[in-house]
Amino acid sequence: MATLQGRVISEGMVVAPVFVYEKFSLDKLNYEAGSADEELAKYEDALKVATSQLKELFIKALKELGRDKSLLFEVHQMLIQDDDFKDEVRNLIKDGLDAPHAVQKAGQTFADMMLAIDDDYMQQRALDFKDISNRLIRILANVESNTEILEPAIVVADDLEPSETVTFPKDKILGFVLRQGSANSHTAILARGMNVPALIQTPLKQNSVKTGDTVILDAVDGCFITEPSAEQLAEYNDKIAKRKAMLAELKQYLNGPSLTKSGKAIKLYNNIGSLEDIKSVLENGAEGVGLFRSEFLYMGRSSLPTEEEQTKIYTKALQALDGKPLIVRTMDIGADKQVACLRLKKEANPALGKRAVRICLDDKRLFKDQLKALLRASVAGKLSIMVPMIISVDEVRQCKEILAECREELKAANQPFSENIPFGIMIETPAACILADDLAKEVDFFSVGTNDLTQYTLACDRQNDAVAYLYDDTNPAVLSLMKMVAEAANQNGIWAGVCGELASNSEITSTLISYGYTELSISPAKTPIIRRAIAKTE
Ligand code: PEP
Ligand code: MG
């Protein structure tokens, strides 16, 4: 039995057998190469087959998933027929490569070219080039895509390309668990569109599950349980039944405002990691976004997101929220959230090392790109900026100075931005709690990150299973610090909220409100649950 944590990209809970999906590898293929002419002919044939497959996929996606999601396969039809791409493959074959290797090489070259273009749309095409190349290779090597699921199952894979995701028979898919994957990928969008529970970045070892094994997928708390015990199965069957009943009952709490029994309004916001998550914010009736974990925009890519690119993303987020507030946390890079292209030094204690605001103050250029993007986007809605991992007044002042420099530079460049952007900090270190009274005089709001506050207060690594029994965000030491923080905020006339996981704990809602917290930011699926807990608070 093992319980693994993954990142929820689509919520839900299910107990079911798994279907293990394995990609083929070009190196393991038994491919018999012919002469250059023969390889060219095989490529032309494969091109015809692939094009007709893509036409069928387009029709299937249109019927099952709607116009939006089917467009991708129209794009694939265009890319596979792109003259430059076809010429590249043909030239590589003439240079001596067999057809599958020529397709693979051309696919990689075009994917790299797309990634090098400073444009969101073009960068997404990189995956599409890989996808169409794999389709051609499979046809050339006569390898079936093993997406033939006979019984309803949870698909387990390293990662999935969009066309693989959509090829699975929709009525047989009960969920997805991916070892890799990113929340912004097409695959994630498709999984959400299918409305099945899905986890990405799940550290599941190879061969640790096989097709047919019964597992538990909990894409509410973000865990995947292999070889569950009879007690766990009973526990989850019970949880699933309760969740069903609760979802029915919770419908009445789907829309705001969030008021306590005495009519006190609490801002009930959501935590997100990507633009796509805003859909779920709106569906679950949250009143805004209290934490946009912007570091996810930097992860899993070969180059840093530019000011331009980020401006577009934050602008789109504000537009999608249509007047609802958006609090963007500046990049919380480091510790468990590594950004390969920053090439940070390996550290013995990364959680206590160069992370978040420490990186930003060290690399002003990097920080300024993000701050300027945020300022430029601010004209599109109600934006607030929040800085993580603060331990001193000096750090806050340095951040404000850099922000002021960004304003000056944008003014000089005639770039418009809003003059009133609330500036807040995350309170997630004991030092920030102790200094809360001084810090409150510097900022417009506090948001307590209980995940880190718990790890630093209890000296207990939040990533380490061996000390998980000590990691408790309701520990009295953590709660005492939180009480101090809310009091300091109220005494200085600023608001304080909670955006760590503790805010999603409905047993603690009334305690947090009694301390003086007026904002709670939680995962979208928990919104009606916490709104109900607020309504039950005296
Ligand atoms: C926290 O520490 O509670 C928090 C919200 O930030 P993250 O979990 O992203 O570190
Ligand atoms: Mg944190």
Characterize the structure shown.
The structure is a single chain. This protein is an alpha/beta fold. The protein has three domains: 2-23 and 146-231, 3-Layer(bba) Sandwich (Glucose Oxidase, domain 1), CATH 3.50.30.10; 28-141, PtsI, HPr-binding domain (Enzyme I, Chain A, domain 2), CATH 1.10.274; 259-536, Phosphoenolpyruvate-binding domains (TIM Barrel, Alpha-Beta Barrel). It is 45% helix and 15% strand. It is built from 19 helices and 17 strands. It has an eight-stranded mixed β-sheet. It has an eight-stranded parallel barrel with strand order 10-11-12-13-14-15-16-17, surrounded by four helices. α1 (36-65) packs antiparallel against α2 and α3 crosses α4. The longest helix is centred in the first third of the chain and has 30 residues, at 36-65. Bound molecules: phosphoenolpyruvate and magnesium ion. Magnesium ion binds at residues 332, 388, 428, 449, 451-452. Residues 26-60 form a coiled coil. Mg(2+) binds at residues 428, 452. It is found in: Cytoplasm.
Secondary-structure map:
Layout (H helix, E strand, L loop, with lengths): L1 E4 L1 E4 L1 E9 L15 H30 L1 H14 L2 H12 L4 H17 L4 H21 L12 E5 L4 H6 L5 E6 L7 H9 L3 E3 L13 E6 L3 E4 L3 H21 L7 E2 L5 E8 L5 H6 L5 E5 L13 H15 L4 E4 L27 H6 L1 H14 L5 E5 L5 H20 L10 E5 L2 H5 L1 H5 L4 E4 L1 H8 L18 H16 L3 E4 L10 H7 L3 E4 L4 H9 L3
Parallel strand pairs: 3-4, 4-5, 5-6, 10-11, 10-17, 11-12, 12-13, 13-14, 14-15, 15-16, 16-17
Antiparallel strand pairs: 1-8, 2-6, 3-7, 7-8, 9-10
Helix pairs in contact: 1-2, 1-5, 2-5, 3-4, 4-5, 10-12, 12-13
Bound molecules: phosphoenolpyruvate and magnesium ion.
The site of phosphoenolpyruvate has 10 residues, from strand 11 and helix 16.
GO molecular function, one term: kinase activity
Cofactor: Mg(2+)
Subcellular location: Cytoplasm
